[in-house]
Amino acid sequence: MPDMRMLVTGGAGFIGSNFVHQTVRERPDVHITVLDALTYAGDERSLDPVDGQVVFAKGDIADPDIVDALVREVDLVVHFAAESHNDNSLHDPWPFLRTNVIGTYQILEAVRRYGVRLHHISTDEVYGDLELDDPAKFTPETPYNPSSPYSSTKASSDLLVRAWARSFGVQATISNCSNNYGPYQHVEKFIPRQVTNVIDGVRPKLYGTGENVRDWIHVEDHNSAVWTIIDKGRIGETYLIGADGEVDNKTVVETILEVMGQPKDAYDLVSDRPGHDLRYAIDSTKLREELGWTPRYRDFRSGLAATIDWYSANESWWRPRKEATEAKYTQLGR
Ligand code: NAD
Ligand code: DAU
What is the CA(100)–ligand 2 centre distance, in A? Predict the structure, then answer.
């Protein structure tokens, strides 16, 4: 088999950089170019572990010229780039429309032009939310019902990919994954925010009552599933990625506090996120039975403890973004 040339969009973000690390480690036959705009969420230092082993291009996926020039040189595009934070989308939706919808359109037009394979990374949030006691989980057949500007733009991007696959024969697969945790996640997100707050002697902030449930998966497992889909997935199909990791937010905060040697109740309840989705839960049977994927990180508590250790040991990575992030939350009253 000849070597594969791959473009990774959003490869300086949380999940994209982990995908690049994993690929360099496990797939020496893959030549990687990263396209990333280095927005407030991107950090080139997240690629330090693979320094010299990948090509980095700073650029915007909504710019058709840079997208064209890079896509024409590769065999595969793995598309992670997005505006990814719900709270930001409630404050200013436009960057979400621009990157998630128009940016995905530009990627689709380029892969269509050159007959390049695409894997599109999406989220379980496109399905809306579930009641706490609903026995059903999200499946690939669940109707789309997004709640926030973020999730509605991700849903829009998925629908574009489906339409380009059907109408233009674009060779695409889609994955919708649940909440990721692990190293290199921006301090605006729930787990890194609380861990770095505790390091700073600040009490964690829990939205509303803390009863909301997320279905946690380690970022390494998300990306091993992405590779499984690239290797074995059927073109035109959607696969849901999840590791049966449902935990309510209050329990997550209590576990962080306990692991970090603090009293379990040393947190504050703050005002709720508008439209806050109650519960996400993934049924990943199709991915497991059809493609034979299984997660490796099965114990959330030990994965969380390792993540806490990473943030404790890598303060120089997150510290430059902490103050501005907390200033934004202060403005939101959270
Ligand atoms: P992130 O915010 O950490 O990273 C996004 C990256 O995209 C950043 O490096 C940023 O600079 C880059 N980017 C943003 N706009 C860009 C543009 N216009 N052009 C080029 N690059 C741009 O996000 P993440 O958490 O790593 O999420 C990555 C993908 O995974 C997203 O598509 C997201 O919807 C999806 N996803 C995330 C989760 C999760 O729990 N974080 C779960 C399921 C799916
Ligand atoms: O489900 C997948 C999605 O998971 C991804 O598509 C998104 O990109 C990713 O950001 C994440 O979305 P959430 O909104 O679930 O993640 P977030 O980390 O913002 O919040 C997780 C939960 O914690 C949510 O119920 C809100 C709550 N929360 C969040 C913060 C930042 C708090 O209680 N306190 C906080 O300080």
Answer: 18
